Amino acid sequence: MASSIAMEELHVHEYDEADDSSPSTNGTGPRSSKLKSRSDGAVFLSLGLLSVFLLARLISFFVYYRASEDKLSSLSEERDLLNASLTNLTQEMDRCQRLTNNLTQEMDRRQRLCNQKKTCPEGWRRFYSSCYLLSNKCSPE
User: Fold this and answer.
1) CA atoms within 13 A on the CB side of 87
2) Which conformational region is residue 101 in: left (phi greater than 0), alpha (psi within -120 to 50 degrees), or beta?
3) Is residue 24 packed enough to be buried (19+ CB in 10 Å), middle (13-18) or exposed (0-12)?
4) d(Cα 43, Cα 40) in Å, to the nearest integer?
5) How far is CA 136 from the centre of its chain?
């Protein structure tokens, strides 16, 4: 009887070792659970790496968003300053245009005055823009 128990233990031992070295056909047994735990570990590792990558991308998008927001704020301030400057320059241009119109009107008025035919009193002679009285009388000496 002792020899039959030892034979059964030996047979069980041999079966366990054989089970470890040969692939399981029904998906149970020590080899199958080792493969399952390895594939579970690979899945968890992949998910962990994916989570880290997504977190890094999320942080980089946040940093980019903040930088863009700051740049947008700066550009808005610059736009407001440029609009104020444009308003001032437009007012200055309008003032200069009015001054130019006034000066043009004054120049036209003076040109008309110069072009009017000046007449000298009777007996006087015109020489360039002045009138002179020429006399035929001799002065007493």
Assistant:
1) 6
2) alpha
3) middle
4) 5
5) 90
Tell me the per-residue pLDDT of 20-30, one tens digit each, with 9 for 90 and over.
444 445 555 55
Q: Which alpha helices (H) appear in the chain, and where do they start and end?
A: 2-21, 30-115
**24: Cβ–Cβ under 8 A, 6 or more apart, which residues?**
31, 32
Per the CB < 8 A criterion, the answer to whether 125 and 132 are in contact is yes
Rounded to 10 deg, the angle between the 30-115 and 2-21 helix axes is 20
43-52, pLDDT tens digit by residue? 889 999 999 9
Q: Which residue has the tokens 């069980």?
A: 12
User: Quick one: tokens of 31?
Assistant: 């080899």
What is the rounded distance in angstroms from the CA atom of residue 141 to the CA atom of residue 135? 16
pLDDT beneath 70, residues of the chain: 1-35, 117, 139-141
Residue 88 tokens, joined:
């001032």
Take residue 61 and report the two structure tokens written for it: 């998008």
